[in-house]
Task: structure prediction
Amino acid sequence: MVRPGRRARSARAVGRAPVGLTFLTKQAATKGATRASLPVHALRRLLVRLNLALAALCLVTPLAPLAAQDRDQPDRTIDAAERRAVIDGVLDRLKQAYVFPDTAIAMERAVRARQRRGEYDHITSGRAFAESLTAHLQAVSRDLHLRVRHRAEPFPVEAEHDEPSPADRARARAFGQQVNFGFERVERLAGNVGYVEIRGFGFDTADVSEVAAAAFTFLGHTEALIIDVRRNGGGSPVMVAQVSSYLFGPDSVHLNSLYWRPANRTDDFYTRAEVPGTRYGPDKPVYVLTSRNTFSGAEEFAYNLQALKRATIVGDTTGGGAHPGGMRRVTDHFAVWLPTGRAINPITKTNWERVGVRPDVAVPSDQALRASHLAALRGLRAHATDPERQQALDRAIADLERERN
Result:
């Protein structure tokens, strides 16, 4: 493990994003997929393949798109033999790799007790069985990442650490282009306050680089910045570090660490010494907007900046998922999204699992943009010395306050 403050970095912290990333954000994914030139069914197969490949290196596979595509699949009838095989396979996976071994044992005991009582005997729907197992595992672990999935279409049979093919990468990149690699909107608000909405951190940083550079160059002359991750379902810690680098100086800042149980390894993630485009820097005020839908990698982004006192968090408490992992095939038609690691913040020595990121300014998420904009304007007004600038800020504040009324 690299100690905080050292310039050495994990290769994953400064290189391209791990190949096991999901290239979808929580809300934009399904909508974007329907616009993609790649057929929807082919895109889904591609995403499953990418999730299986090096999945343990990804901070989160956003669960909403996965659940949606499961619901789109036709259901299947299952029998007692298949139920036993799925239970055995899921529990074996948990004992082998779940981030907390004691919790894995507790989950096994709980599910085996239900199995002995015959609670699963009446379930003949594959979809209902997956949902039941998910509920029972989460009741013990309280881990929102942990989820059993069922598909009528078989899960690919391949080594879990096989990399996607060049064709897979090309298709994923094409899809990323259609959703602008997570950057949904960039604009300059009244009073010279910048705004950027990022809906996903699950993209290859080499692909993100040009878009991020353009966004932050556009925002470079604004005097305060609002970053909106209210509809961001997660992604890779590598892209989180990439975007965060724009908010600091060239000196390396330790953002987060991830401990992986299977390899008994800790990876550290730092800001970059160099970024393309215009660095926003460490001094101008930054606000991060959150909601209950802000999850996993997006939570890490907010949590890191809050712990470093680099940003003010505005909105709702976030979803509470801090355990990275990936999809593991159990049988032809069942898989489990298995958390195999945990985030360790270098300042708090803990993470946001189960509790979420608590905002500094708690407001309903649909009011967070207005609240943060007002806070930014008032902060700028307090430090303004030029009379014309003071008057312009006063007008902007008055306009926003009138909107409330």
